[in-house]
Amino acid sequence: MDFNLGEDITAIRNMARKFAQNEIAPRIAEDEKNHAFQEDIIKKMGQLGFFGCPIPETYGGSDLGFLAHAVVTEEISKVSGSARAGFNMQTMGTAREIYQYGTEQQRNKYVSKLVSTEYLGCICITEPNAGSDTGSMKTKAIKEGNKYILNGGKNWITYAQVADVGVVYAYTNPSHKYKGLSAFIVDMHSDGISSGPTAEKMGWCACPTGEVFFDDVEVPAENLLGGVEGQGFTFLMGSLDNTRLSAAAGAVGVAQGLIDQAVAYANERRQFGNPIGKFQMVQEELARMIVETEAARLMTYRCATQKDEGQLHNTLETSMAKYYACDVASRVADGALRILGAYGYSTEYPVERLFREAKLYQILEGSANIMKMVIATDALGYRKANKD
Ligand SMILES: Cc1cc2nc3c(=O)[nH]c(=O)nc-3n(C[C@H](O)[C@H](O)[C@H](O)COP(=O)(O)OP(=O)(O)OC[C@H]3O[C@@H](n4cnc5c(N)ncnc54)[C@H](O)[C@@H]3O)c2cc1C
């Protein structure tokens, strides 16, 4: 596989790198401290085309592909997890999902507005008693004439309090279990929808996360994703294959951000008459961090490239990339903290914030255990991960 990025992807990567350094980095610590949603940053990212890589031009994207998406995500994540979240809220879990599974009318109505950030998006899967076990969700959408009546509650929803449009999963026929699950495109300003913040988080504080309640919300039948009931689980699994790629790229980004900080500090900090980078044990730590991050990057790029080559449902390779990259991010965070010593533990340097950001990747979009289950059950022959 050739990971030569070519001119167009290199250009957007450089643009993202510059944007992250010039626009996000100078204020991220303050915005995280104040829990201030960086809406202007997200909107600018939309205007610069960062959210449109895996979307065709007809629907407002650039058609640069999944590898471009991964590379841009990585650059933003080096500096901020909160800004990285936009890649799933505006692209993979909403615009891309609607493009991949929606009707032509749905694509025309929503995709370009999500990519440009005219609409902010959210993905509503998780419920208080349905985390990894998504099938146990209780939200229902019952058809009445030409609309559905949506009832239920979701939590841990990124952008819950600010979203204009949500992709919401609900049972249209609970007795059919997985085959009774459907997905809806919901106007989040509809009557009957209320939201509020979740419990305080340890990181990603410049990105709102909340609960959403649906109380007799009327959803037009034309907003049933793909126009067919009972496809929700298939759409959800397909979409997770995309959002997990974003998570893997985000994990590679935060790991690289931590390495950059650790290298700079190891050159600057002097102990026993030498920069600490001269000590072999510090070098060993750095070498491990660098090699693991590079391996995670290669797995992530492979996964993206397979998708660019048409293998969209590469669940096995996606799960491997997501599992490995997200665990590496935590190990690298630990290494960076060791190298910075007391200064790593202080809020004076970004390492403690990036450390907290890295931890989320082991939970989001399918925990590390769930990824290992996919990988091992495929190897054991219990359940094939790649369906096509
Ligand atoms: C900041 C943040 C933002 C989020 N944003 C969104 C969002 O936008 N939309 C959305 O729908 N959700 C969102 N989530 C929810 C997230 O997707 C869930 O947290 C995740 O799916 C895990 O669910 P859980 O936290 O309930 O953990 P649980 O499912 O309760 O798991 C707890 C532990 O048990 C383990 N476990 C569970 N089942 C098994 C098993 N069968 N075998 C082995 N181990 C198992 C897990 O690996 C984990 O270690 C967000 C969460 C956070 C923290």
Concise synopsis of the structure shown:
The chain is an alpha+beta fold.
What's the total count of β strands?
A: 9
- Please give the domain count: 3
| Adjacency order of strands in the biggest sheet | 2-3-7-6
Globular, elongated, flat, extended or rod-shaped: what is the shape?
globular
The CATH architecture of the largest domain comes to Up-down Bundle
Task: Work out the helix count.
Answer: 13
By CATH, the superfamily of the largest domain comes out as Butyryl-CoA Dehydrogenase, subunit A, domain 3
Major beta sheet summary: 4 strands, antiparallel
CATH topology of the largest domain: Butyryl-CoA Dehydrogenase, subunit A, domain 3
CATH class of the largest domain: Mainly Alpha
Characterization of the model:
- It is a single chain.
- The chain is α+β, with helices and mostly antiparallel strands.
- The protein has three domains: 110 residues, Butyryl-Coa Dehydrogenase, subunit A, domain 1; 112 residues, Butyryl-CoA Dehydrogenase, subunit A, domain 2, CATH 2.40.110.10; 142 residues, Butyryl-CoA Dehydrogenase, subunit A, domain 3, CATH 1.20.140.
- Helix 1 packs parallel to helix 3 and helix 9 packs antiparallel against helix 10.
- The longest helix is centred in the middle third of the chain and has 37 residues.
- The protein is globular and about 80 Å long.
- The mean pLDDT is 97.
- It binds flavin-adenine dinucleotide.
- Flavin-adenine dinucleotide binds next to strand 1, strand 3 and helix 13.
